[in-house]
Design brief:
Radius of gyration of chain A: 18 Å
CATH superfamily of one domain in chain A: P-loop containing nucleotide triphosphate hydrolases
CATH architecture of one domain in chain A: 3-Layer(aba) Sandwich
Number of helices of chain A: 8
Oligomer: homodimer
Family (chains A, B): Belongs to the guanylate kinase family.
Number of strands of chain A: 9
Protein name (chains A, B): Guanylate kinase
Shape of chain A: globular
GO molecular function (chains A, B): ATP binding; GMP kinase activity
Distance between the termini of chain A: 14 Å
EC number (chains A, B): 2.7.4.8
Structural class of chain A: alpha/beta
Keywords (chains A, B): ATP-binding, Cytoplasm, Kinase, Nucleotide-binding, Transferase
Order of helices and strands of chain A: EHEEEHEEHEHEHHEHH
Helix content of chain A: 40-55%
Largest interface: A-B, 32 and 32 residues
């Protein structure tokens, strides 16, 4: 029987919505989902580990990866590069395992061009006021940068139309449950399974 | 904010696959899903209660309901009529509540014509051999009727293409978990939510 290919799950949403927190909470649960590690030129935040949270790269190294076509997508965002190394993603999917990418909105839209069959999840704040709170509370941004991020966020929310699912991040554990349900559900989609079951009928 | 309409979930699949068992197990769980009750002219099986498992009707009464357009769908199946009274379904959906219909394949396809936005789930046996076992073990059918049901089942499995999801009923609790995941996931589909979130951005 032909092996079912893994799901590429793309978790995205405006900066500050809590992608990292939700993805971190999902990781702590017992699922079979693997996690892609992005490359970035931004500085590590406290507690972030190279090769675990991100591959932290110099600008020169990152540009070399772009040139050699080693990135599934890359984008410049508020002055830094972010990108997804392609090798690990392809290998995981072809082994029939699911992999989740946690990436910025620009990057997600580029992945969509190459992986139309991916599962694209847009993480939403309960409100724009709450989004501003979260960015302010992170405490790493100046007032100007916060306003800049809010403007970008509003543009990004308009892009949810390009996604398959919208998950509200009202509470982290609820957002995690919704994402887990989406993954189970996508594995049951008829389009992904019909080949398998036609074999079952023909085998009779 | 405009009230989100409930989901119409249609659980179907070949006779003997375990629709009733799975639906019964789902009912015992703490979900917000309501259950439609079908009308039928077939005789009650042991333990089945009128108005709970089915509305048991005479052939005359059933034909009266057809004539008065009180059925969302109806079908004749192995000599009996089955149908879904339309009132309760419409009322439930417009109140924003989810409702599940457990119906035969013919009926499900008719519901699809009227409710294209419904969530159509096809319950699959792990194999055709296992399906035969289940029909035999039910102990209510003659050998001829079993063979008849198996022929119908194979034709019905070909119809899974008309469904959104295929759920394998390998173990009842697993099938129930998959159905619950599909319901959560469908509530997160962008197409169902985009209106709500556009209001959020415009409200700013």
């Amino acid at each position: 029987m032909k092996k079912e290919r893994g799901l590429l799950i793309v978790l995205s949403g405006p900066s500050g919505v809590g992608k990292g927190t939700v993805c971190g909470a999902l990781r702590k649960q017992d699922t079979d989902i693997l996690y892609s590690v992005s490359a970035t030129t931004r500085s590590p935040r406290e507690g972030e580990i190279d090769g675990v949270n991100y591959f932290f790269k110099t600008r020169d190294d990152f540009e070399e990866m772009i040139k050699n076509d080693q990135l599934l997508e890359w984008a410049e965002y508020v002055g830094n590069f972010y990108g997804t190394p392609v090798d690990y993603v392809e290998k995981t999917l072809s082994e029939g395992k699911d992999i989740i990418l946690e990436i910025e909105v620009q990057g997600a839209l580029k992945v969509r061009e190459k992986f139309a069959e991916g599962v694209f999840i847009f993480l939403m704040p309960p409100s724009l006021a709450e989004l501003r709170n979260r960015i302010v509370n992170r405490g790493t941004e100046t007032e100007d940068l916060i306003n800049n991020r809010m403007t970008v966020a509003k543009d990004e929310i308009e892009m949810m139309d390009k996604y398959d699912y919208v998950v509200e991040n009202d509470e982290v554990h609820l957002a995690v449950e919704r994402i887990k349900a989406i993954v189970i559900s996508e594995h049951c989609r008829k389009d992904r399974l019909i080949e398998k079951y036609q074999q079952l009928v023909e085998a009779e």
